[in-house]
Design a protein that fits this description.
The strands form 3 sheets. The protein has a 5-stranded antiparallel β-sheet. A 4-stranded antiparallel β-sheet has the order 4-5-7-8. The protein has one domain. The chain has 219 residues and is of the alpha+beta class.
Length: 219
């Protein structure tokens, strides 16, 4: 029993030393999407939690920092079955899967290889309009209950998709300590199956171009 106690203490000490040497830094931000419909503002938002972890490098070329996030896409109800969803990805076909981890970092222009700047992540504060070049992938569903009705669109195409009464009014990012949101599945009920990775859950909307994947909606 004595040796078991020593071994357990050694494991605990080793784990503690690892966490000290390779800490994880966390911050949260709220993404709010604004669209004007017939002169009235329609908005949706989600709180996303991002993690940056130092990690051991055993091979050349391995990034000493690891990135991950928890959160969900932003759903905006435009009325009359119309909607717009800001996905957890960027690019014309949502190919930029790392988008949620870098949208804030690009704004503050931090050097995360500097330990002091890395440690400052949890203290970040501010609110700003997201530049048009940094927008996430936008999608819409003609039937929110059917994922196969998805289409991607650009911010300047809202009038074309929804009519002249619908105008893009931008995205606001705000640093926050609020809890991560969990509402997307109440808007798009099929997200549960998609994020679970069940067989047949991927939806090929534009074969070879755009596929609906769980991490676009929830992580």
């Amino acid at each position: 029993m004595k040796w078991l106690g020593i071994a357990f203490a050694a494991v605990v000490a080793g784990f503690a030393l690892y966490k000290i040497s390779y800490p994880t830094h966390t911050y949260r931000y709220r993404m709010t999407v604004n669209v004007e419909v017939d002169g009235q503002m329609r908005s949706g938002s989600s709180v996303i939690e991002a993690h940056v972890s130092k990690q051991p490098v055993f091979l050349p070329g391995v990034n000493p920092l690891g990135y991950s996030e928890r959160g969900e896409a932003v759903f905006v109800d435009l009325g009359g079955q119309r909607n717009i969803v800001a996905l957890l990805a960027s690019g014309p076909y949502a190919e930029g899967a790392a988008y949620p981890s870098f949208v804030v970092l690009q704004h503050f222009r931090l050097n995360l290889f500097d330990d002091r700047q890395l440690a400052s992540l949890s203290q970040l504060r501010g609110r700003w309009d997201l530049p048009s070049k940094d927008l996430p992938t936008l999608a819409t569903f003609s039937n929110p209950g059917d994922p196969t009705t998805a289409k991607t669109l650009q911010a300047d195409q809202l009038e074309q998709f929804f009519g002249p009464d619908v105008r893009w009014r931008g995205i606001v990012i705000e640093m926050t300590t609020d809890a991560v949101t969990h509402v997307i599945e109440s808007k798009l009920p099929w997200v549960t199956k998609l994020t679970a990775g069940l067989a047949g859950s991927n939806v090929f909307v534009s074969p070879g171009k755009f596929t609906l994947n769980g991490p676009y909606f929830k992580r």
